[in-house]
Write a structure and sequence with these properties.
The protein has about 180 residues and is mostly beta strands. About 10% of the residues lie in helices and about 55% in strands. It is built from 1 helix and 11 strands; from the N terminus they run αβββββββββββ. Strands 1, 2, 3, 4, 5, 6, 7, 8, 9, 10 and 11 form an 11-stranded antiparallel beta sheet that branches. The protein is elongated, with a radius of gyration of 26 Å. About 20% of the residues are buried.
Length: about 180
């Protein structure tokens, strides 16, 4: 003998979806911090990363062994429309020491391009691809607005930046 059991059905009610909507909303809120971990922004003006680089500092020490130069004390690096200031900048040359491969700036780094300025603890500039990675309490000032993040990746040739890691934004509107 086979027993047939019939499930009791209820008429459809939008209220029956309320628990599902609540759970879906909660999952969406939990996903927001992950989605808010990076923000793309314009940065400064386009800079020609193949332009000559000028460096000024209080002291300079050069190592023939590893092909590096260390500038210390009130270091100012200028290239096209970009200006970078730091306490210390190490210049690393390519293998045949004919051109600069990258710059590593530390100690209160400030990078200015056009009307935009950024501050961080460190900046690594890959001259070949025109990219600067600023890290450590990054603060970007764009007019009256500011953006804070853990890291900022700048493409100098394109004049763009990507803010990463707990991005916080303070926007002002209409001069307020």
């Amino acid at each position: 003998m086979i027993a047939v059991i019939r499930a009791q059905t209820r008429p459809f009610s939008p209220r029956s979806l309320a628990p599902l909507a609540f759970v879906a909303g909660l999952l969406a809120l939990l996903a927001l911090p992950a989605a808010a971990q990076q923000t793309s922004v314009p940065f400064g003006t386009e800079t020609d990363s193949s332009a000559p680089i000028q460096v000024q500092s209080d002291t300079l020490s050069v190592s023939q062994e590893d092909g590096s130069a260390v500038f210390e004390g009130n270091v100012l690096v200028e290239q096209d429309s970009m200006r970078m200031e730091a306490a210390r900048v190490q210049v690393i040359y390519d293998e045949d020491q004919s051109r600069i491969q990258r710059l590593e700036a530390t100690g209160g780094v400030t990078l200015v391009s056009g009307e935009d300025a950024a501050e961080a603890e460190r900046a690594d500039y890959d001259v070949d691809d025109g990219n600067v990675v600023m890290s450590g309490d990054v603060l970007l000032v764009r007019g009256p607005s500011t953006i804070q993040a853990e890291r900022m990746r700048i493409n100098l040739d394109a004049g763009t930046a990507l803010m990463e890691g707990r991005v916080r934004t303070f926007l002002t509107q209409d001069g307020n």
